[in-house]
Specification:
about 475 residues; two-stranded parallel sheet; TIM Barrel; alpha/beta; binds 6-O-phosphono-beta-D-glucopyranose; eight-stranded parallel barrel
Length: about 475
């Protein structure tokens, strides 16, 4: 085997809204996440209520020094996190940024750099300022492009000497499924037409391209990528109709990266727009802006799905988008189908399509963990299931490298336990580090190393040589 390149960026990932807590501290404004609640992705509330675990998260806002030290102990080369937009612009449309918010991320990045960890920063991870949602209907409104551009300019200027890796919008393709959380769109999904959604997408794509342009101008030595919810779609049977259906389903997701990587709308959109009565407002300047294409393609990968034309086949559970379950795969406790080879397939497909470096910025197993006390009094979690999951996925990453795919790095999702995005529970844990917090809000917030902590440390130390090829 060729193995992982020497400069492979090993690390972990979190998002501000699922980890920081401190939802009103340091002058932060409310984000769309602050008005959600357990088990409910779509319908916002008027005000934040205490049953929303995201309000306190895992208190990363106050404990980041301790947490980053633990990441350094595992040998992280990179740490993916997001800047909470409403920490910098509490309402999103003001002229002056919030200095306390800027200072917070200065401290976080300095702590990373102290340990030789490169921050990989998502500019927008499901954290649209709530005010933009209420006043402008989020990304449906063209004005939000300018607000975003201003925010991006401020953070590029401030952190240009600290951050070399950037991502624009987290899982940009999720907007068609969760327009409120992904697109900050206040209008109920049932009242939105396809045109409304695709116009909002257009605005986001232009905003993403403008951020790429700014990044290249302001931080020439940095790299900026797009971020896609990666979900390969297999035909459920070899029937040609099912194969075609799977191609159509994949295009619903490729639509976004095709534009972000190539700089223009792909040819298949013509027919799609015509048949769905979508006439977009695209200016000449928009077309020029879109030509600012990303340096690399990043994505989350948790599962694959199947497509079928058989109306009796129903969608199963899954990462936002979901799809028909594959009869050959097993599922996690949350019904997400586990498919390590799917990661190799997807990496190859993306690389064949774009020939751009790829970055796996989310992958991992959400599972129920039990904290146990060992004979010497140490508290830990024996999470062999997580080790197996990650081992098998990383083996497929190395296979893809052998296949010739250019892969920059791997940041496992929720490297420290955090509040789940789709279900807002904390009992769905992903971390190498256990956080003592429970779904009823109780817990000390203490951190404990799980068995997978030492396992991942070894993987990084040996640059993947310790992985088990079964
Ligand atoms: C991705 C998101 O959809 O999947 C993360 O980018 C999220 O924010 C992750 O946490 C896992 O999903 P969940 O619902 O298990 O937290």
């Amino acid at each position: 085997m060729i193995g992982f390149p020497d400069n492979f960026l090993w690390g972990g990932a979190i998002a501000a809204n699922q980890a920081e807590g401190a939802y009103t501290e340091g002058g932060k404004g409310l984000s769309v996440q602050d008005v959600t609640r357990k088990g409910w992705l779509e319908k916002p509330q008027e005000f934040p209520t205490e049953d929303n675990l995201k309000l306190k998260g895992i208190d990363f806002y106050h404990r980041y020094k301790e947490d980053i030290k633990l990441f350094a102990e595992m040998g992280f080369k990179v740490f993916r996190l997001s800047i909470s937009w409403p920490r910098i612009f509490p309402n999103g449309d003001e002229n002056t940024p919030n200095e306390d918010g800027l200072k917070f991320y200065d401290d976080v990045f300095d702590t990373c750099l102290k340990y030789g960890i490169e921050p990989l920063v998502t500019l927008s991870h499901y954290e649209t300022p709530l005010h933009l949602t209420k006043k402008y209907d989020g990304w449906r409104n063209r004005k939000v492009i300018d607000f975003f551009e201003k925010y991006v300019e401020v953070v590029f200027k401030r952190y240009k000497n600290k951050v070399k890796y950037w991502l624009t919008f987290n899982e940009i393709n999720s907007i068609t499924h969760v327009p409120f959380l992904s697109g900050g769109i206040n209008t109920r999904k049932t009242e939105l037409t396809k045109k409304d959604i695709y116009q909002a997408i257009h605005h986001e794509l232009v905003a993403s391209a403008r951020a790429v342009k700014k990044c290249h101008e302001m931080i020439p030595n940095a790299q900026i990528g797009c971020m896609i919810l990666g979900i390969p779609v297999y035909p459920l049977t070899p029937k040609p109709k099912d194969v075609w259906k799977s191609i159509e389903s994949e295009r619903e997701n490729y639509y976004f990266s095709d534009i972000q990587v190539r700089g223009y709308y792909p040819s298949y959109t013509k027919r799609f727009f015509k048949e769905n009565d979508i006439e977009l407002e695209i200016t000449e300047q928009d077309r020029i802006d879109l030509k600012n294409t990303v340096d690399f393609v990043s994505f989350s990968y948790y599962m694959s799905v199947c497509a079928s034309t058989d109306p009796t086949k129903k969608s199963g559970k899954g990462n936002i988008i979901g799809g028909i379950p594959n009869p050959y795969l097993e599922s996690s406790e949350w019904g997400w189908q586990i498919d390590p080879l799917g990661l190799r397939i997807y990496l190859n497909e993306l690389y064949d399509r774009y020939q751009k470096p790829l970055f796996i910025v989310e992958n991992g197993l959400g599972a129920i963990d039990t904290l146990v006390t060992l004979e010497d009094g140490t508290k830990t979690v024996i999470d062999d299931y997580r080790i197996n999951y990650m081992n098998d996925h990383l083996v497929q990453v190395s296979e893809a490298i052998e296949d010739g795919v250019d892969i920059m790095g791997y940041t496992s999702w929720g490297c420290i336990d955090l509040v789940s995005f789709t279900t807002a529970e904390i009992k769905k844990r992903y971390g190498f580090i256990y956080v003592d917090r429970n779904d009823d809000g109780s817990g000390t917030m203490e951190r404990y190393k799980k068995k997978s902590f030492e396992w991942y440390k070894k993987v990084i130390e040996t640059n993947g040589d310790s992985l088990e090829y079964k």
